[in-house]
Amino acid sequence: MVAAAGGMKVRDLIRKPPVTVPPTATLLEAAEALTSHGVGAVVVVDPSSPDKPIGILSERDIVKAISAKMPLSTPVEAFMSTDLVTVEAEEPLSRAADLMWMYNIRHLVVVERGKFVGVISVRDLLEPNRRRQLC
């Protein structure tokens, strides 16, 4: 799993296909997707361009919506983050860690030449064997 030269790359952390929802999905549908797939964020994509994410909705965003007393029927586009922070798949793990720290986020959208290929989380980086790769 370690890349040939230079240690692990961001692409090495992508373990499963990303969970996506359309912007019209409800907060409840997004919460159900998070639960059923065991992830902390869903990527929001326009069904006509699924390789170009338009937002991300995390557990934190759903908590903010609930605390604002928004109905669970509210579309995710009302609470998704649209200022996506992305990382190239070939970047070293340290770059992903730096971006998460800099922007105070827990999930990064991974792209390859501008095309959406996955998501990694801070938890992926903190796995004990991977932490050594960050040093």
UniProtKB/TrEMBL annotation:
It comes from Pyrobaculum calidifontis (strain DSM 21063 / JCM 11548 / VA1). Gene3D superfamilies: CBS-domain (3.10.580.10). It holds the Pfam family CBS. This is Signal-transduction protein with CBS domains. Residues 14-72, 80-135 form the CBS domain. The keyword Transcription regulation does not apply. Keywords: CBS domain. The keyword Calcium does not apply. CDD domains: CBS_pair_arch. It comes from the Archaea. Transmembrane segments: none annotated.
